[in-house]
Amino acid sequence: MGAPINNNHGCTMLADLRHDWDKGEVLSLFNLSFNDLLFTAQRIHRQHFDANEVQISTLLSIKTGGCAEDCGYCPQSAHFSTGVKASKLMCTEDVLTEARKAKDAGASRFCMGAAWRSPKDKDIDKVAEMIEGVKAMGLETCATLGMLTSDQANRLGDCGLDYYNHNLDTSEAFYGNIITTRTYQDRLDTLDNVRQAGMNVCCGGIVGMGEKVEDRAELLRTLANMPQHPESVPVNMLVQVEGTAVGKVDAVDPFDFIRTIAVARILMPKSFVRLSAGREEMNEQTQSLCFLAGANSIFYGEKLLTTANPGVDRDKQLFEKLGLRPLQLETQEKEDALAA
Q: Is 54 in a helix, a strand, or coil?
């Protein structure tokens, strides 16, 4: 395992991938001057990615509302009155129609989310049919369906699911302030089932739920110290929804959010760092600094499950201003093959 080394600018660089970060080291990254932190993150980002390519994903809610979990940020929880109506699982044909639209709009990954605490086996069979149809279009596939048993994870892996999303959300110490209906270990167990089934892991968290910087550091440290880094790390800015448990907390400072993106990039150099929920509340300058800090994936489309997201045209305009271009899936596959 490599150790951090200092460059001439007083920044911390990495000799290679690490899985042994301690709390003090991660906090020291958060405490770097803003310029040094972004410089370090951008240097590391360029070692592993084209700095001007961003992967475009689309997220579709295939089953909305009525979830038995009490996640304090989620308008789909049955524990809160947020105006979100519960719906049944979409039919495969309708999901594939949305996937075609996403591909036509420039997406290379299609993500499907269902508001379940954990799916039933019959649900897994239906989702597997959707996954196979989406993959036949040449899109990467991702799903987030709640907790999975080992058998369910294997079923999804067998049907070709590329990524499974299951966020840790926050640090283990702060977790109980946000969720009580499942434990932190429950989440880790699902991630282990996903990894054992041969799928890529998509796992990150949410910034702005009232946590401290130490909690953000510990969340990222937990992810970075996994035996294998998550291939995708979504970093969400809390979207405050009236009626949820954290719907009225103080909004996070944009600079603190950008710092979280940068530290994620430094700790997990080869992972896609996904600028996820909350972009509707960010101005162009904040998003631009997130890209500079190492974010290289976003969600296209006007909605993320049930909350607003910038429209496709707005994203295209920002990309043009910054000289960014969508990642082409075949390009990434060639790069991965060369690196193997």
A: strand
Q: Examine the residue annotation and report whether 11 is marked as an active-site residue of this protein.
A: no
Residue type, 340: A
Q: Give mean pLDDT, residues 41-70.
A: 89
**Residue from 11, 71, 203, 290 carrying the catalytic annotation:** 71
Share of the chain above pLDDT 70, in %: 85
Helix ranges restricted to H, 165-283:
172-175, 184-196, 213-224, 254-267
Report whether pLDDT(5) > 80.
no
Burial 250-267 (b: 16+ CB within 10 A, else e): eebebeebbbbbbbbbbb
**Is residue 292 scored above 50 in pLDDT?**
yes
Q: Side chain identity at 214, as an amino acid letter?
A: E
Query: Of the listed 11, 202, 203, 290, which one is catalytic?
Result: 202
Q: How far apart are alpha carbons 259 and 284 in whole angstroms?
A: 16
Question: What integer is the mean pLDDT of 308-325?
Answer: 80
Reported as a single tens digit per residue, the pLDDT across 74-85 is: 777 666 666 667
Distance CA 187, CA 62 (A): 21
User: How much is the average pLDDT of 241-252?
Assistant: 79
Helices (H) and strands (E) counted in the chain, each on its own, are 12, 14
Q: 58: part of which helix (H) or strand (E)?
A: strand 53-63
* 216 within 8 A of 207, measured Cβ to Cβ: yes
Catalytic annotation present for 202: yes
Q: Please pick, among 11, 43, 111, 221, the residue that the annotation labels catalytic.
A: 111
67: annotated active-site residue: yes
Amino acid making up residue 104: D
Distances in Å between the alpha carbon of 290 and those of 100, 141, 153, 293?
29, 24, 32, 5
Q: What does the mean pLDDT of the chain come to?
A: 86
Catalytic residue among 142, 155, 182, 203: 142
Active site residue 290: no
User: Pick the catalytic residue: 67, 109, 155, 187?
Assistant: 67
Active site residue 91: no
Task: Give the model's pLDDT for residue 7.
Answer: 46
Catalytic residue among 74, 109, 182, 216: 74
Question: pLDDT class for 308, splitting at 50, 70, 90?
Answer: very low
